[in-house]
Structure formats: C-alpha cells, structure tokens
C-alpha cells in the first residue's frame, strides 16, 4: 500500500486506499452502473445526453395537418345574416362546429358528407355577436381548432308579421294561422322558411301566400278538436326584400276547441248548428236580398262584437244604411259579411224572406240584452275560428283571401 489518494471517477472518496481482488471488481461494476443510469453522453443521444425523438415519438409530437378556416374573419362586423357564415377544413375533416350568440343560443348547422365544410341551416339574427368554435382532424387523428367571433349587421329598414290567432287562445276547427307583414315581401321563400307551424297530434300544415304581404297556414282538412298548434316566427335577420330585414323572434301557441260547423241554407232560410257531429240547433235566418246576395262558401268567424256599428258606405253601399247598434255581430269576411242579430225586421221575416245586404241575420232585440234571442244564443255558443258554410245562395263563392277563408281553395292549389 502506498497511501496515495485515488484519482479520476472515484476521487470523491478521499482517504481510501486502493484495493485489489474481489472487492475492487465489485467497485468497478458499481461505478459502471452509476455512469449508465445518470452519467455522461449516451450513444444514441445528443451531446447533452437527451434521447432523440425517433419513430412513433415524432408523429405524436407533430402538429395536425388539418387547417380550419372560418368566414367571416375573426372580429368582423356588419356581417350579412345569410350566406356569409361558412366553416371549412383542408387536409382534414371537421368533427365539431358550434356557433352561438352571446346568450348561448346555438345556431343549427350541418357538416357536409365529406367533412370539409359546415353551413348554418337558417339565417342569423341581426345586430348579434356570434362565437364560432370549430375542430378538424387530419388523417393521423391529430386535431386542430379555430375560435372566432363576429357581429351581424344592424338593419336600417325592418318588418314584422302581425299574426292571428292570439297566443294562448282556444279557437274553432276552421282557424288558420294568418300572418300579415308590414312590408311587401319579395323573397317569400326565405320568409316562409323562417316560420314553422307544428301541430300536436301531428298533421301536415302548409303555407300559402296571398299577394306579397300575407301568408296563411292550414292543414288539408279542418283541425281536429284538442289539437295544440305552435307557431315559431324566426324572422329576426331574414331579408324579406332588398335591404329590409325581419326583427321578430316569437313563439306562440293556441288550442283547437270543440268542433262547430254551422250551415246556412240561403234557399231554405235556415241555419243548422252542428257540434262534434251532432245538430244542436236549427235557427231561422234571413240572408241577402236578390240584389245583394250572400256569398256561398266556407267562412270562418274572425271577430265578435256584442254591439257594433255598420255603415253601408264602408262596404260599397253608399248611404243605404248606417246602424249604430247592430247586436251580436260576428265577422265572416273582410269585405263586410257578418252573421248578426237583426232587431229592425219583423219576427216573421226570419225563415221566410231574404232581405239583408249580404249578411246572415238572426232575430234579436235592440241593445243585445235578451239572452233568449236566437242571435244571442248563437253568439254565446260560438268562438273565433268556428266555421259558417253558406250554400244555395244566388251568388258566387267567396274568395279564399276575403277573410280567413282559405278553405275555399282546393288543397292541390293551396300547396303550389
């Protein structure tokens, strides 16, 4: 033993003497293990000893090749409510696209069959901020995402639809959904697509345009009693005519009550009231005089007035009459056809002569105070939407758009 300290890798164990034999061999083995686990540069690593990314490791750490593009660009404003929003993917397929307004209301859309594009299924609302989140996946399963926001235009000119019947009402089996727009519509397809009418139990409901400012919806036959009808007006943002946008987003519902269909026979001068398939009353009436006959056809009660004024000048009869207290009046047409009480004709007129200016008259008293009068009974037992059919009058059939009377148009014509 020479008593000198050991140098090199074992220099840290000063004061120990060099040994030989089995113990020395064991020490060498331990030193090799320490070096292999945490020592100098590895054969397959870089000069700092870090392992290289090879094979599968390189694929897992690489960026996705899929590229997501959203139009309009992030932060855009005054964006059109139709045709501007589109999401596309290159070198990959879209897996998720969500679009929602600032309240979280989602925009329904659809990814194309090949996965390369997404478009909304309807127009967007005006003056609204939207957030887009889209994800695409490349052929190796790696995902890439895009998040943007944009704001739609603020329209200078707008329109709404005035609708009937009222929300929460109970109406007769003949009641259509009728919407009158405040501006003439030149893009009826877009407007009609923004309105949804559904029934429970389900039945096919179709719309029909009368001119460019009225759209009615009805089933092929009268509604079934008890049906619940829901109307969704998603007009906010729809361009009804160039530069004119809807500003209405509303949901209303109404219920169909019992079935009541009353048939006026102008020849026999009677009215048969049938409820749920059974006649409950047969009332003597007076219809239009030979020179002022009553329209034939199916008519729907659209308004009810216990007492109202009727002035012939408002319906083309000049000064022939002006009655300030017509009792129990129910409107059947826009042009002035009513079924109403009549106190000025003698009692024996009803059932025997037609003397009116085109309306259907029932015996009544002035002031509408006597509930036993035929007109009072019919008024009290009728609701908006009930059907009154006039037949055997020497007049033409009423036009479908004269009142809520689309039932006079064949279904084949209605759905064109």
From TrEMBL:
Active-site residues, record numbering mapped to chain: 340, 359
Keyword Acyltransferase: yes
Gene3D superfamilies: 2.60.40.3710, 2.60.40.3780, L,D-transpeptidase catalytic domain-like
Superkingdom in the source lineage: Bacteria
Pfam families assigned to the protein according to its UniProt record, in alphabetical order: Big_10, YkuD
Tagged with keyword Acyltransferase: yes
UniProtKB keywords: Acyltransferase, Cell shape, Cell wall biogenesis/degradation, Peptidoglycan synthesis, Transferase
InterPro entries recorded: Big_10 (IPR041280), LD-transpeptidase (IPR050979), LD_TPept_cat_dom (IPR005490), Transpep_catalytic_dom (IPR038063)
Pathway in which this enzyme or protein is active: Cell wall biogenesis; peptidoglycan biosynthesis
Domain L,D-TPase catalytic: 260-391
Name by which UniProt lists this protein: Ig-like domain-containing protein
């Amino acid at each position: 033993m020479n008593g000198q300290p050991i140098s090199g890798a074992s220099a840290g164990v000063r004061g120990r003497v060099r040994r030989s034999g089995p113990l020395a061999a064991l020490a060498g083995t331990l030193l090799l293990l320490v070096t292999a686990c945490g020592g100098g540069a590895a054969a397959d690593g870089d000069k700092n000893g870090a392992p290289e990314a090879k094979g599968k490791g390189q694929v897992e750490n690489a960026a996705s090749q899929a590229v997501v593009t959203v139009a309009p660009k992030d932060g855009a404003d005054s964006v059109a409510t139709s045709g501007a929003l589109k999401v596309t993917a290159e070198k990959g397929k879209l897996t998720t696209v969500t679009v929602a307004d600032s309240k979280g209301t989602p925009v329904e859309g659809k990814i194309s069959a090949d996965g390369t594009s997404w478009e909304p299924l309807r127009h967007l609302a005006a003056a609204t901020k939207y957030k887009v989140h889209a994800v695409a996946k490349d052929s190796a399963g790696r995902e890439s995402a895009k998040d943007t926001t944009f704001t739609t235009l603020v329209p200078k000119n707008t329109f709404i639809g005035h609708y009937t019947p009222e929300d929460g009402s109970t109406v007769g089996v003949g009641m259509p959904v009728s919407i009158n727009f405040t501006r003439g519509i030149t893009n009826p397809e877009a407007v009609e697509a923004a309105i949804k009418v559904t029934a429970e139990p389900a039945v096919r409901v179709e719309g029909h345009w009368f001119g460019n400012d009225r759209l009615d919806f009805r089933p092929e036959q009268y509604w079934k009693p008890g049906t619940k009808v829901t109307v969704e007006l998603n007009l906010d943002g729809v361009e009804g005519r160039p530069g004119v946008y809807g500003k209405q987003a509303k949901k209303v519902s109404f219920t169909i009550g019992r079935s009541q269909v009353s048939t006026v026979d102008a020849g026999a001068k009677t009215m048969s009231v049938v409820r749920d398939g059974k006649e409950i009353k047969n009332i003597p009436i007076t219809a239009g005089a030979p020179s002022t006959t009553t329209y034939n056809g199916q008519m729907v009660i659209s308004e009810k007035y216990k007492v109202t004024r009727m002035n012939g000048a408002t319906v083309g009869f000049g000064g022939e009459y002006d009655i300030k207290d017509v009792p129990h009046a129910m409107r059947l047409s826009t042009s002035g056809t009513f079924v109403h009480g009549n106190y000025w004709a003698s009692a024996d007129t009803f059932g025997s002569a037609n003397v009116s200016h085109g309306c259907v008259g029932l015996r009544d008293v002035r002031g509408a105070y006597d509930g036993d009068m035929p007109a009072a009974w019919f008024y009290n037992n009728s609701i908006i939407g009930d059907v009154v059919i006039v037949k055997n009058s020497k007049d033409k059939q009423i036009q479908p758009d004269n009142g809520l009377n689309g039932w006079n148009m064949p279904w084949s014509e209605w759905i064109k």
